[in-house]
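Dear Dr. L.,

I hope this message finds you well. Following up on our conversation about the binding site, I have prepared a predicted three-dimensional model of the protein together with nickel (II) ion. For your records, I am including the exact sequence and ligand specification that went into the calculation, followed by the structure tokens. Please feel free to forward this to your student if that is useful.
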Amino acid sequence: MAIRNLRLEGDEILTKKSREVEVIDEKIQTLIDDMIDTLHKYNGVGLAAVQVGVLKRVVVIDLYDGNDPIVLINPVIIKTKGEQEVEEGCLSFPNQFAKIIRPAEVIAEYTDREGKRMRVTAKELLAQTISHETDHLEGELFMDKIIPGTLEYLEPEK
Ligand code: NI
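The resulting structure of the complex is given below.
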């Protein structure tokens, strides 16, 4: 288990498309463990592998709601419903927050780390996070979709 270096705003890798995971081997398991450690270290709710420099379709999410982190391998959004206007940030854009429109509900399929294909119906923050993280897998960044004029820079706490 280790903290990995975050790829930040301006790093070209963030605009690249990630590749499907074909075999969930030890390397992928280590990547997942490290991504969860990195997510927790920076108090994020979601992290895509590309943000630690790995172009694989792996996402980890932790809503800090008492449940274990969710690991999504090769996630696909099957259906979206409605819209929600939300405040959003990204670990690759430290201290920057903006308003953005996300789907109110998302139905997604993914493979869990045991290799089982799963389906989730997500609302609110989970729908927002799945939408944000699957965008990362396509090389799409929230900053390019924000509602104009809503960007705020928050100074980190000393
Ligand atoms: Ni992000």
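In brief: The chain has a mean pLDDT of 97.

With kind regards,
A. P.
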